[in-house]
TrEMBL record, chains A, B:
<dbReference type="GO" id="GO:0004040">
    <property type="term" value="F:amidase activity"/>
</dbReference>
<protein>
    <recommendedName>
        <fullName>amidase</fullName>
        <ecNumber>3.5.1.4</ecNumber>
    </recommendedName>
</protein>
<dbReference type="Pfam" id="PF01425">
    <property type="entry name" value="Amidase"/>
</dbReference>
<feature type="binding site">
    <location>
        <position position="191"/>
    </location>
    <ligand>
        <name>substrate</name>
    </ligand>
</feature>
<feature type="active site" description="Charge relay system">
    <location>
        <position position="133"/>
    </location>
</feature>
<keyword id="KW-0378">Hydrolase</keyword>
<dbReference type="InterPro" id="IPR023631">
    <property type="entry name" value="Amidase_dom"/>
</dbReference>
<feature type="domain" description="Amidase">
    <location>
        <begin position="78"/>
        <end position="553"/>
    </location>
</feature>
<feature type="active site" description="Acyl-ester intermediate">
    <location>
        <position position="241"/>
    </location>
</feature>
<feature type="binding site">
    <location>
        <position position="217"/>
    </location>
    <ligand>
        <name>substrate</name>
    </ligand>
</feature>
<comment type="similarity">
    <text>Belongs to the amidase family.</text>
</comment>
<feature type="binding site">
    <location>
        <begin position="238"/>
        <end position="241"/>
    </location>
    <ligand>
        <name>substrate</name>
    </ligand>
</feature>
<dbReference type="InterPro" id="IPR020556">
    <property type="entry name" value="Amidase_CS"/>
</dbReference>
<dbReference type="InterPro" id="IPR036928">
    <property type="entry name" value="AS_sf"/>
</dbReference>
<feature type="active site" description="Charge relay system">
    <location>
        <position position="217"/>
    </location>
</feature>
C-alpha cells in the first residue's frame, strides 16, 4: 500500500478523482483486455451511445459548427454527446488527465442562450467541443503535465496566485471563437516520448489496436480523437508529438512552423530552450477541420498577444494558388511535384508503412503529379542537432520536476535523460549548435531549391512525402526512433499527417530480403509482428517549407481525398 | 617601432594598404585637426569635387536610380563620383576598412553595357552605389571586422576556401538588383560599442562635428553616408548599432525586426547567440531610400535563401493604410496616436536631445496627432535581459578573436567584456533569461494594447517616439548608456531614426535644475558641453511593434517631412 503523502498515493488520489469525475450513468462496468477486444472504436463503443450521440460524435468539426451555427443542434446537446463519448474513451484507453464537463455544459448553455437571443453564432467555432493536451492552462482545472509533483501547483510552484485561474493565450482565443473546452488529455511526464505514460494515469493505449501505443507526447489527444471522443484537439510538437499520435490513430495532424499559432502561456518542458521550439498544432479527422481551427485562430490576431507569433494572417491567395494547381492537374495542364523519401538511411519502415508509401506513390501517379526521389542532406546530421537541444540543460528541468514528488522517470525517457541530471551544454556549445542548425537549414533549403531542375513545373517540389515513423504504431517501450519526425522540427518545416491505410497481417509480411543497416534498424524491424499489428492505422506526412500551412493543408486534403475515394 | 609580425605591424600594413588603395589624384595633402575644421561635410568637402560629382553625390538614392534607370546618368559616372567622395570621407574621418573601386567601376561598366543593349535597367537598384559594414562578405576583398587577427582569414580561420570568394546572401541580392558595391566600412572590433574604433584604422570621427564620435557599431557607415560618400548603406543592430550612427550623423536608419531581411552568410560576433538577434538595416538620407532598398530586397524572396527570414513580402496594404491615415489627418478626420517617452527613468537626455523631443511634440500637435505619455514596463528591466545575452559566453568568442593576433580590447569594450574571458551562463540560466525576455515582451505588448483606451482613435498608439541616445553624439570613450536603443532590441520592435535638428550652443544650455537620478545620470550629463557639441546632429527614433516596417517607414517619412518643411 502506498505510504501516506507518497507520490504513489498522490498519483492514485488524482487518478481516482478523474475516474470519479465521470458521471455514474456513463461508467462501464468491465473493461475488456486487449486480447478480448483489440479495437474499441466504431461499433464497439457505439453500444453505450444513443443514436443521436453517435450522429453528433461521428460528424466532422466543420459540419458540427455548421449545425450549431444554424441552430439545428444545440451547443448543449453537442457538448453532452462528446463528454459522454470522451468518458467512454477514457475508460477504454486511459486518455484524460482533466475533465470539466459541468463547466463545458454551462458554457454550452450560455452559447445556446446567445444564439436564442441573437439568432446568430457567437463566432466561427460556435459550440464546437475542443480537447486540449495537458499543457494548456484552463481556469478551474489544474495542469499536471503528467508530473505527480505538479498536482496542486502552477507548473510545480505553489502560491503563485495563478493556480486554476490563469488561462493560456490560445484558450482565450478558443473561448472567444465560441469553442467549448471540456477536457485535457494525457501526456508522458516530461513530454519527451512518443508513448504516453505517467504515474498518474499509466499508459494510454491505441483505441484501434490496444496492443499498441496511442503515440505521444500528445497521445491522450490522439487516443481521444481516434475514439471520436472529441472532434478536434490541440497537441504540441517538438520532435513529432502532434504527428506521431495523429498518425498512430489514423488522423490528420498539423505541425505548423514556429510562430504561426500562439504558444504563449502554456506549460512546457525546458521552457526557454529556444534553439528548436515546440509548436502547437491541431489534430482531427479531416483537413477541413484543421483548416477551420487554424483560420479561426489566425482571425484573432495572435501576434498582438504572443510575442513569438509572426503577423501572417491566413493567406487565401497562397491556398488558392495551390488549389488552382490541383484543379489544373485534373486536366493535365499543370501538376504538382513531390519529393518521395521512403527510407531515411537510418531505419527501415515496417511493411505496413512501406505499403502506405507505395499507395502514396501510386496515388500521385494516378493524379498526374511528378515524383522525384528525395536525396537531401543527411537526415541523421540534422536530427543530431535536435537531440543536442533536448539535453542542453543536462535534464535539469525535467529532473527538478520529477524530484518535486520523488517519482522516478518512466522507462521511455531514461535513454535520453537518465535518472539524474548530467553535465549540460555551455553557452559556447549552445551557440555552436545554433550555428550548425542554421547551416543545416540553409543546406536543406538550397537542396529544396535545386529540385526546380528536376520537376518540370518551373518550381522546386511542392512538398516532400515520407513516413511519420518506421512503425504503424509503437509497441510498449519500443518507440525508439524519431528521425522521420525530428528532421521536420530541426528544419522548422510545416507538416501534416495523412492517414493512408491499416496494417493487414495477410499482406504486410516482413521481407526475407531485409538487410539491416544498423543494430537499431535490426531492433526496430524485430518489433514488427503482422498478427499483433493487424488493424493498426498507417499514415504518412506531407512536409512543406517553413510557414507553408495554407499550401500543405490544401495538398493534404487533395491527397487524403484521393486515397480515400478509391 | 612595431615588431615584425606583431599585431601592431599587421594592423599598420593593412591601414597603409587601405590608404594606398585611394587613387593618387583623390588624396588630400594635409588633413586639418578638429579644432581647425570641425565640420568637414558640405562646402568643406566640395573643394575637392567637380560640379558634376557634387550633383551626383548630393542626390537621393531614389533620384540616382531614376537617372541611371533612364540612361540620363551612366552607372560608371555615378560609381566614380561616389568612389571619389568616399575616398575624401575616409581621409577626413577614417571610415573605410575595404575599398574595391576598380571592381565597382568594372561592374558599373557592365551595367552600362547592359543598358546600352537592352535600353532598360537590370533591376530596381540599377547603378546605385551601396556601402556595407565590414560584416558582409564580398568576393575579392576580405572581412576583418576590425580584428587584426582576422586579416588574411575567413572569420579568423585560414584555409577555409572561402577567403575572398564567399559572398553573403544580401550581397548576392544587391548585385542581382543592380547595385554597385564599392567599399566596406569600419566597425569597433567585437562590434559591441556605440563608438567605432579598432587597431587597424583607429577612431572614426563624426564628420559634422569631429570632436564627437560617428557612432557605432555601424559607425563607418554613419560617417561615410553622413559625408555623402555613399547614398545608402547597410549596418547591423543588436543594441542600437544602426540607429546610433544614423542618429549621430543626421540620417534615417532602419532597425527592422529580426527575420525581415537576410543576415545569412554574414560574419558576426557571438554567432549562434539566438536570444536577441542582430539584424541588418539600411541607413540613408531619406526614408524613400530606405524604402527603395527594403522593397527591392524583399522582391528577391529572401526567405528562400535565409532560413531565418519570414515569408513576409513588402505589404503595400499595410503601408497604404498608414498613408491613408496620414492623409486624412491633414483634414482632421483621422489622426495618428503616439506614445512619447522623453526620459527613460535612467538617464536624462542632454539639452539638444530634450529640444529635439520638444520639436517632435510640437510637430505632432501641429499635425493634429494625438500624444500620450508613455508609461511602459520599466525599461531598465528589459535592457538588463539584453545585457545578459551579450555575455552568455563570458566573452569567449570575442576574446578568442582578439587572441588570434594578441591585440588588446579597445577601452570601449572592456567595461562589458574585460581583458579575459569570464564565467559564462549555464544552459539553464540561458533558458531562464529567454523566459524572462518573453515575459517582458508580453508585458510590453499588453501595455501597448492597453493604450487603445487613451488614444481616441480606436487603435493603440501607432508608434512610440523617444531619443536614440541621451546625447546628440558621444564624446570619445563616453558612449556609456544604451538604454534608449537596447529596449527596442529586446522587444524586437521596428525602429527608424529621424534627424530633427542640430545642437546649438546658444539655446541648448544645461538646466540649472537638473537633478541626477543616479551617478550614471550625473556622469552622462557632465559630458555635455554646449560649445563642443555645437553643430552636432540630433535625431529621435520612431518605434513600432514587431515587423511593422511598412508602417514605421511611412510614419518616419511623414514626420521627417513635417519637421524639415518648417
Amino acid at each position: 500500500m502506498a505510504k501516506a503523502g507518497s507520490w504513489q498515493e498522490v498519483a492514485k488520489a488524482k487518478r481516482e478523482a478523474i475516474a470519479e469525475s465521470i458521471p455514474q450513468p456513463w461508467r462501464i462496468d468491465a473493461i475488456p483486455s486487449a486480447a478480448e477486444q483489440r479495437d474499441v472504436t466504431g461499433d464497439y463503443v457505439h453500444q453505450w451511445l444513443s443514436q443521436e450521440e453517435i450522429e453528433i460524435t461521428e460528424m466532422d468539426a466543420v459540419d458540427i459548427v455548421e449545425k450549431t451555427s444554424a441552430g439545428i443542434w444545440s451547443a448543449e446537446d453537442v457538448a453532452r454527446a462528446f463528454c459522454h463519448r470522451a468518458s467512454l474513451a477514457h475508460q477504454l484507453v486511459n486518455c484524460l488527465l482533466e475533465t470539466f464537463f459541468d463547466a463545458a455544459i454551462e458554457d454550452a448553455k450560455q452559447l445556446d442562450a446567445y444564439f436564442a437571443k441573437h439568432k446568430a453564432p457567437i463566432g466561427p467555432l460556435h459550440g464546437l467541443p475542443v480537447s486540449l493536451k495537458d499543457q494548456f492552462h484552463v481556469k478551474g482545472v489544474e495542469t499536471s503535465m503528467g508530473y505527480v509533483g505538479w498536482i496542486g501547483t502552477f507548473q510545480g510552484q505553489k502560491g503563485t496566485g495563478r493556480e486554476r485561474v490563469f488561462e493560456s493565450e490560445m484558450v482565450k482565443e478558443l473561448r472567444s471563437l465560441g469553442a467549448i473546452l471540456f477536457c485535457k488529455t494525457s501526456v508522458p511526464h516530461t513530454l519527451m516520448s512518443g508513448e504516453t505514460i505517467n504515474h498518474i494515469l499509466g499508459y494510454t493505449w491505441n483505441p484501434k489496436n490496444r496492443n499498441l501505443s496511442a503515440g505521444g507526447s500528445s497521445g491522450g489527444e490522439g487516443a481521444l480523437i481516434g475514439m471520436k471522443g472529441s472532434p478536434v484537439g490541440f497537441g504540441t510538437d517538438i520532435g513529432g508529438s502532434v504527428r506521431i499520435p495523429a498518425a498512430f490513430n489514423g488522423l490528420y495532424g498539423l505541425r505548423p512552423s514556429a510562430g504561426r499559432l500562439a504558444y504563449e502561456g502554456m506549460s512546457n518542458s525546458m521552457d526557454g530552450q529556444n534553439s528548436v521550439l515546440s509548436v502547437v498544432g491541431p489534430i482531427s479527422h479531416s483537413v477541413a477541420s484543421l483548416k477551420l481551427l487554424v483560420q479561426a485562430l489566425l482571425s484573432q490576431d495572435p501576434w498582438l498577444h504572443d510575442p513569438l507569433v509572426h503577423e501572417i494572417p491566413w493567406r487565401h491567395k497562397c491556398e488558392q494558388e495551390t488549389i488552382d494547381l490541383i484543379n489544373s492537374s485534373r486536366h493535365g495542364s499543370e501538376k504538382l511535384a513531390f519529393g518521395i523519401l521512403e527510407h531515411d538511411g537510418q531505419v527501415t519502415p515496417h511493411p505496413p508503412v512501406q505499403r502506405a508509401m507505395k499507395i502514396i506513390k501510386e496515388t500521385l501517379r494516378r493524379l498526374n503529379h511528378k515524383i522525384i526521389d528525395w536525396e537531401p542532406p543527411e537526415h541523421k546530421r540534422g536530427a543530431e542537432i535536435l537531440y543536442k537541444a533536448w539535453v542542453f540543460d543536462g535534464g535539469a528541468d525535467i529532473h527538478s520536476s520529477l524530484k518535486l514528488s520523488g517519482e522516478p522517470p518512466v522507462p521511455q525517457v531514461t535513454p535520453l535523460y537518465g535518472h539524474e541530471p548530467f553535465q549540460g551544454f555551455s553557452a559556447s556549445e549552445i551557440a555552436a549548435t545554433n550555428v550548425k542548425k542554421r547551416e543545416y537549414q540553409k543546406e536543406y533549403m538550397e537542396y529544396w531549391n535545386s529540385t526546380r531542375d528536376q520537376t518540370g513545373t518551373g518550381r522546386p517540389v511542392d512538398a516532400l512525402i515520407m513516413p511519420v515513423a518506421p512503425f504503424a504504431a509503437a509497441r510498449r517501450e519500443q518507440c525508439k526512433y524519431y528521425g522521420y519526425t525530428t528532421i521536420v522540427n530541426v528544419l522548422d518545416y510545416t507538416a501534416c499527417t495523412v492517414p493512408v491505410t491499416c496494417s493487414n497481417q495477410n499482406i504486410d509480411i516482413a521481407s526475407p530480403d531485409f538487410k539491416p543497416v544498423s543494430e537499431l534498424d535490426q531492433d526496430i524491424m524485430a518489433t514488427y509482428d503482422p498478427a499483433l499489428y493487424d488493424g493498426a492505422h498507417v499514415a504518412v506526412q506531407i512536409v512543406g517549407r517553413r510557414l507553408q500551412e495554407e499550401k500543405i493543408l490544401a495538398i493534404a486534403e487533395h491527397i487524403g481525398q484521393a486515397i480515400h475515394s478509391d
